[in-house]
């Protein structure tokens, strides 16, 4: 009885969604999961409350070698579809910010919801089951530490390698290569920046715990959200977002006055409060510790009336275009996702089946589609899993 219509490798967000859909269509489905629990990344997501989707999901919120690829799946299984599923299971949810929906119950409630649906769809899940080899002739044979299984279709839903201590690996890329498919190496994304020791010492450690709303940019890409100084470097949503667009050697630009033109703001302060010191005025709009640090390192602090127009322009440049040069990121150890994976052009965007290998499917983070921070990655997992589930 080890023969199934479909074997799904990976009981994460995408794999479970695919299993539910295929099971509901009456297919016999086995989900193989190498860890001792399904949905481990769901459990730790969103600070324990799973940011399960985003109200403003759209293709432009994803990075990929093929920016069109995600459009079809995202339009066929939308954020509203997943919200309906959550509502059907009477789970509460709250929009925290920027369309990000979090579960009112713990993240475990989302895993329970998916497992309940799997059970209703007669999906079989094998835990602690490690795939040793996949071969394909007439059908697929999957050798594992527990037993050998065979199927007509195999779905690779093994995600990306971020957080290796949870057992995450680049399995998807290895399997893709085995089948001669084009891949992109996984690269840590949505990940904090690190800086050289002298900058950590003089800047970041002293400001550790300070959060500021900024516009953070690299090249032509900008995010208006908070940054957080930490003893290891720079984190916070804006830093995580921009990390997906950053490559080694790039400078990042911080605009500390995201709602004002810095020079206009400085001129207005000089007119309104000519005797006040810049540091005092800055402390009213950015964290006091940061204002002091900027004045210690980059700006001569004095009463506003003493600044020449040229000096104010130089201060405006520091406030609106403060350049920082990370020397790396924290890497896969803390990355929320990974860029890269199977090249999208290897797949049908309708079915998620490989164009050149019949019956082999890839879904979720294993494909080179990576969302912004804010529920977009789960929405991609649900959508791509749902699509494959209609065909396997
Ligand atoms: P996922 O990683 O979920 O599942 C893959 C499964 O395959 C795992 O269960 C793994 O054990 C299993 N597996 C791997 N190799 C295997 C093998 N060889 N054999 C058998 N099984 C194997 N996103 C979001 O939208 N909102 C959020 O709030 C968060 N928060 C968040 C926090 C943290 C700390 C992290 C690390 C990540 C997030 N994410 C997120 C990202 C999100 O978790 C991620 O994009 C999805 O889980 C990807 O879903 P997949 O199903 O593709 O992979």
TrEMBL record:
Residues 188-337 form the RsdA/BaiN/AoA(So)-like insert domain. It comes from the Bacteria. Keywords: FAD, Flavoprotein. Residues 5-390 form the RsdA/BaiN/AoA(So)-like Rossmann fold-like domain. Pfam families: HI0933_like (PF03486), HI0933_like_1st (PF22780). Its cofactor is FAD. This is Aminoacetone oxidase family FAD-binding enzyme. It comes from Leucothrix arctica.
């Amino acid at each position: 009885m080890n023969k199934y219509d479909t074997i799904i490798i990976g009981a994460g967000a995408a794999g479970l969604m695919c299993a539910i859909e295929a099971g509901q269509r009456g297919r016999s489905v086995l989900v193989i999961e190498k860890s001792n629990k399904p949905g481990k990344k769901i459990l730790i997501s969103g600070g324990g409350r799973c940011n399960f989707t985003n109200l403003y999901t759209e293709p432009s919120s994803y990075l990929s070698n093929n920016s069109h690829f995600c459009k079809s799946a995202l339009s066929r299984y939308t954020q509203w579809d997943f919200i309906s599923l959550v509502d059907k299971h009477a789970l509460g949810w709250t929009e925290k910010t920027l369309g990000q929906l979090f579960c009112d119950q713990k993240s475990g409630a989302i895993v329970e919801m998916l497992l309940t649906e799997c059970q209703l769809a007669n999906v079989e899940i094998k835990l602690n089951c490690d795939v040793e080899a996949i071969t394909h002739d007439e059908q697929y044979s999957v050798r594992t530490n527990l037993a050998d299984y065979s199927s007509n279709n195999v779905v690779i839903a093994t995600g990306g390698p971020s957080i290796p201590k949870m057992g995450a690996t680049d399995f998807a890329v290895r399997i893709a290569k085995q089948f001669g498919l084009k891949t992109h190496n996984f690269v840590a994304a949505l990940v904090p920046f690190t800086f050289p020791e002298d900058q950590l010492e003089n800047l970041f450690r002293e400001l550790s715990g300070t959060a500021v709303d900024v516009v953070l940019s690299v090249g032509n890409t900008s995010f208006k959200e908070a940054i957080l100084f930490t003893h290891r470097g720079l984190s916070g949503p804006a830093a995580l977002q921009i990390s997906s667009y950053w490559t080694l050697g790039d400078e990042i630009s911080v605009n500390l006055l995201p709602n004002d033109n810095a020079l206009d703001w400085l001129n207005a302060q000089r007119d309104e409060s000519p005797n006040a010191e810049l540091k005092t005025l800055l402390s009213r709009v950015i964290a006091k510790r940061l204002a002091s640090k900027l004045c210690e390192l980059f700006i001569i602090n004095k009463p506003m009336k003493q600044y020449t127009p040229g000096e104010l322009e130089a201060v405006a440049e520091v406030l609106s275009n403060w350049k920082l040069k990370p020397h790396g990121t924290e890497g896969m150890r803390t990355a929320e996702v990974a860029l890269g994976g199977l090249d999208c052009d290897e797949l049908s965007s309708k079915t998620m089946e490989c164009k050149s290998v019949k019956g082999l499917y890839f879904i979720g983070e294993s494909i080179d589609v990576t969302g912004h921070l804010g529920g977009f990655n789960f929405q991609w997992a649900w959508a791509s899993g749902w699509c494959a589930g209609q065909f396997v």
